[in-house]
Design goal:
269 residues, alpha/beta, Rossmann fold, 2 domains, 6-stranded mixed beta sheet, 4-stranded antiparallel beta sheet, 11 helices, 10 strands
């Protein structure tokens, strides 16, 4: 498989705290790569460095063969990196549809004057964007029944789905999901896992996934990268990672080498 993303020797510090230490990995085009690790392992700091919210002390991020380490966060979004956040980051007073449309506004070409007065070209672009979102995002994620509802009135699981929809509206090449099923019940988790698989299989979008639900990670991921204290301690297929003694120790502590078959269940607790 062709690598669409390459992270080379990223290091990041906050004062005396080393959040990332020489982190390297690759993500193959059209596959799901999971980033896992205990709380405080540096997973979200890694996402923030890849998406441009943090500027690493050293190392580089290569996207489709181009070094984007010095590219601003909004430009990374424009060239194909979209993400969701660990905590829901939606505009609660706006409707579902309006929140999702915000994800696609970066693709609009109207100039400031036509957009301000909502002239012909701006109106046509807006209507086309709405049509695309209704057809390709809202129907796909099965949220047509809530499209005109305000975010503030939605259950948590539906809010997470709307946030995913907003990221999809950006038409990303890489979709970065930070704990997409955190706080969800089993039924909501299964629905989200199904949507993520459909995004990867039907649309060919590369997915980077941070998640603590090890059952979901092992079921849907092609590759798993394991962080602990800001360092990569394991990488490979779910089977390889599940059998890695260092990964087991990071999750379970020393002396658990014989519990490899139950890593999935234990790590999810």
């Amino acid at each position: 498989m062709t690598d669409i993303l390459q992270v080379d020797n990223l290091s990041l510090s906050f004062g005396g705290i080393r959040a990332l230490n020489d982190v390297s990995f690759t993500a193959s085009k059209g596959e799901i790569t999971a980033i896992i690790g205990p709380n405080g392992a540096g997973k979200t700091s890694l996402f923030n460095s890849i998406s441009g919210f943090y500027k690493p002390d050293s190392g580089r991020v290569v996207f489709e063969g181009a070094d984007i380490s010095r590219v601003a966060a909004h430009r990374r979004a424009e060239i194909g990196l979209a993400r969701t956040f660990q905590n829901v980051a939606l505009f609660r007073g706006m409707t579902v549809l309006d929140n999702i449309k915000l994800g696609g506004h970066g693709r609009l070409k109207s100039n400031a004057l036509s957009a301000m007065w909502y002239l012909g070209s701006a109106r046509r672009e807006e209507m086309q964007l709405r049509s695309e979102i209704e057809r390709d995002v809202i129907d796909f994620l099965e949220i047509d029944h809530i499209r005109n509802q305000p975010i503030s009135g939605l259950a948590y699981g539906l809010q997470k789905r709307v946030e995913l929809a907003r990221a999809l509206a950006m038409q990303p090449k890489i979709l970065m999901l930070d704990e997409p099923v955190a706080g969800m019940n089993r039924e909501e988790t299964e629905d989200m896992a199904r949507f993520i698989l459909d995004i990867q299989e039907e649309r060919g979008i590369t997915v980077l996934l941070i998640e603590h639900d090890m059952g979901m990670v092992m079921d849907i991921s092609s590759k798993v990268v394991v962080l602990n204290f800001g360092e990569v301690i394991g990488s490979g297929t779910p089977h390889d990672v599940r059998a890695n003694p260092e990964v087991i120790r990071a999750y379970l502590g020393g002396g658990h080498d014989k519990v490899v078959p139950t890593l999935t269940e234990e790590a999810a607790t």
